[in-house]
Amino acid sequence: VCAGTLNGLSVTGDAQHQYQTLHKMYNNCEIVMGNLEIVLIDHTQDLSFLQTIREVTGYILIAMNVFASLPLQNLRVIRGTQFYEEKFALFVLLNYNPNTTHALRHLGLNQLTEILAGGVYIEKNAQLCHVDTVEWRDIMRDPRQEPIV
């Protein structure tokens, strides 16, 4: 079990510092108590340490990154005890660099079966594949929420 963050889009230091902080917090972590915020991570970084995460109690924010794949293949549940922008449990935004070919291409949420509360927002990810083929309503527990993809 490890603690999550509540920083939103604000970051301290450069991309290398962001990566080191992320690695320190989530290496060998299975349950994130709080929010998993992955912001401003470079394409050269090895994120394989994230594959141990099985559950996030808050929300997941993936924004302004340029890595190709997010290795959260063992994540099963987003509880949504906290929301990003007051209603989202999964928020994925601006994961590409318009000046290069580096961009998020695969979310890798193969095992995600439940979002217990909150909605899904996935927008402005120029090279992200397959998100429109996911039946988000089957994963989201709240029928009043409409996924924005």
UniProtKB/TrEMBL annotation:
Domain spans labelled Receptor L-domain: 28-139
Q: Has UniProt tagged this entry with the keyword Manganese?
A: no
InterPro entries noted in UniProt: Rcpt_L-dom (IPR000494), Rcpt_L-dom_sf (IPR036941)
Q: What superkingdom heads the lineage? A: Eukaryota
Alphabetical list of Pfam families matching this protein? Recep_L_domain (PF01030)
Q: GO molecular function of the protein, one example?
A: kinase activity
Enumerate the UniProt keywords alphabetically.
Kinase, Transferase
Q: What is this protein called?
A: ERBB3 kinase
- What gene does the UniProt entry assign to this protein? Erbb3
